[in-house]
Design a protein that fits this description.
- This protein is an all-beta fold.
- The protein is built from no helices and two strands.
- Strands 1-2 form a two-stranded antiparallel ribbon.
- The chain is rod-shaped, with a radius of gyration of 20 Å.
């Protein structure tokens, strides 16, 4: 039987922070209210680019 090969991590594949959320995993959106659609405040939500992890997913 052949010896098992050990898998070494790839040093080139470093995770980068997500651009829209800058690595936090949350993005803020303005909340508009009323007939004239005035901005009333900010609301935070999960980043759809990284799904809250804060890192860009690896391209497989």
């Amino acid at each position: 039987m052949a010896p098992r090969k050990t898998i070494k991590p790839n040093p080139k594949a470093k995770s980068r922070p997500c651009e829209p959320c800058k690595g936090t995993g949350e993005v803020s959106r303005p909340v508009r209210v009323g007939r004239k659609q005035r901005v009333a405040g900010q609301q935070t939500g999960i980043c759809l680019g990284c799904l809250g992890s804060g890192e860009i997913p690896a391209a497989d």
